[in-house]
Amino acid sequence: MKKSLMLMFLFCAVLQADGMNRKVNRKKKVKRSSTELKHPISDSLTSDVLLVSFISFGPGIDFRSIPVFENSLKQFNINQKCAVQYEIKTWGREGERDYCISSKDAKCLEAFTSQTRSSFKGNERILIKEHAQCRQ
After folding, report:
1. What is the pTM of this model?
2. CA dist list (Å): 113 to 1, 73, 107
3. Hey, is 100 helix, strand or coil?
4. pLDDT, tens digit, 9 for 90 and up, residues 61-109
5. Which of 20, 33, 45, 53 is the most interior residue, by most CB within 10 Å?
6. Rounded CA separation 15/4 (Å)
């Protein structure tokens, strides 16, 4: 009786551990698929970039502003005919991410910086830093 009870306990523990392992692997796959939107920056441009950080103080990042920001970046490239590149660096538990933005044309980068600052003025969960370095 004790042996069968012990075997049943071990069987339940193995099933629970397997279920937890599958849940962790599923979360990892979702994270990998979200990074496919990267547009890599060349190594020569990574030292001096515009850094737009979506940060969190507990309630999470401003998820509604991410598509607005990405669309404004795409529209800026189309309208201004600039080659502004960006790379997304995820770093936090609540979806925190950095957009490392660079351009070979300094005037384009300055114009995009001023447009971004005016668009997200007053948003405490979006930090905009000029002449910053990207996270490795």
Report:
1. 0.66
2. 72, 10, 10
3. strand
4. 999 999 999 999 999 999 999 989 999 999 988 999 999 999 999 999 9
5. 53
6. 16
